[in-house]
Specification:
The chain has about 260 residues and is of the alpha/beta class. The chain has one domain: Rossmann fold (3-Layer(aba) Sandwich). It is built from seven helices and seven strands; from the N terminus they run E-H-E-H-E-H-E-H-E-H-E-H-H-E. The protein has helices at about 20-30, 45-55, 70-80, 105-135, 160-180, 200-215, 225-235, and strands at about 10-15, 35-40, 60, 90, 140-145, 185-190, 245-250. A seven-stranded parallel sheet has the order 3-2-1-4-5-6-7, sandwiched between helices. Strand 1 (about 10-15), helix 1 (about 20-30) and strand 2 form a beta-alpha-beta unit. Helix 4 (about 105-135) packs parallel to helix 5. The chain starts with 10 loop residues before the first strand and ends in a 9-residue tail after the last strand. The model has no long low-confidence stretch (mean pLDDT about 95).
Length: about 260
């Protein structure tokens, strides 16, 4: 039973891995014995995280701008120069944009969808050959997309592009799961609720007490909650799961869907 959640020896890429939920997952993977590449736009942030996590295992910095097709291609090519196969891809890099309905700019949709949706699509298809090379019937390669409960329900704040993009990520997850199953690549999504992160900072500052009081489990998510779910999906325990969207939210979405 001990090997059911074992990911030691696997190679993973975690985008948006220098902070927030991406960092939670990257740290969990490193501590579980995986070799992890962390990627984000800021080289200094990636380098700092890689140096920090390398004290606990193997972590490497590989910065990239995933808001463009060319940036996704560049990251995939950089991985291919270093690795012959890739066991796990975590598509976590994301952007948000909040503004009142009457003032919401078209640029908000362009920026958010380019990274949150098109970035997931492009990076997954460019890394498909490496994922396929790592896959087998008993141990598929894994793609883990990070959605949001805001893609399952109307958000508290006016984040029109963000919530729409996360709903798109959830459905893209299902479509990719169907298409990539023959390649023995599973595709699942995690839909986080409130966690301590830069993206959630304003929401928690304004509504933190209300969120805690209305959360069925009565708290904000912790790093181990996120790392544990990702490790489950990446390990033998999650090998027969594909096309799923898993809310990790303390039960919040059960009250609003």
């Amino acid at each position: 039973m001990g090997g059911l959640f074992d990911i030691s020896g696997k190679t993973a890429v975690v985008t948006g891995g220098s902070r927030g939920i991406g960092l939670m997952i990257a740290r969990g993977f490193v501590q579980a014995g995986a070799k992890v590449y962390v990627s984000s736009r800021k080289k200094d942030a990636c380098d700092e995280v890689a140096a920090q996590l390398s004290k606990e295992g193997t972590c490497l910095s590989l910065p990239a701008d995933l808001g463009t097709e060319a940036g996704c291609r560049a990251l995939a090519d950089a991985i291919a120069q270093r690795e012959e196969r890739l066991h796990i891809l975590v598509n976590n890099a994301g952007a948000n944009w909040g503004a009142p309905l009457a003032d919401y700019p078209d640029a908000g949709f362009d920026k958010v969808f380019a990274l949150n949706v098109k970035g997931v699509f492009h990076l997954t298809r460019f890394l498909e050959p490496l994922l396929g090379a790592a896959a087998s019937d008993d141990d598929p390669a894994r793609v883990i997309n990070i959605g949001s409960i805001d893609g399952l329900q109307a958000p508290m704040l006016e984040t029109y592009a963000y919530s729409s993009s996360k709903a798109a990520v959830h459905h893209l997850t299902r479509v990719l799961a169907h298409r990539l199953a023959a390649r023995r690549i599973t595709v699942n999504a995690i839909a986080p609720g409130p966690f301590e992160s830069k993206m959630m900072a304003e929401t928690l500052q304004r509504f933190g007490d209300q969120i805690r009081s209305t959360n069925p489990l009565g708290r904000i998510g912790r790093p181990d909650d996120m790392a544990g779910t990702a490790i489950f999906l990446a390990s033998r325990a999650g090998a027969y799961l594909t096309g799923a969207v898993i809310p990790v939210d303390g039960g919040i979405s059960t009250r609003h869907q």
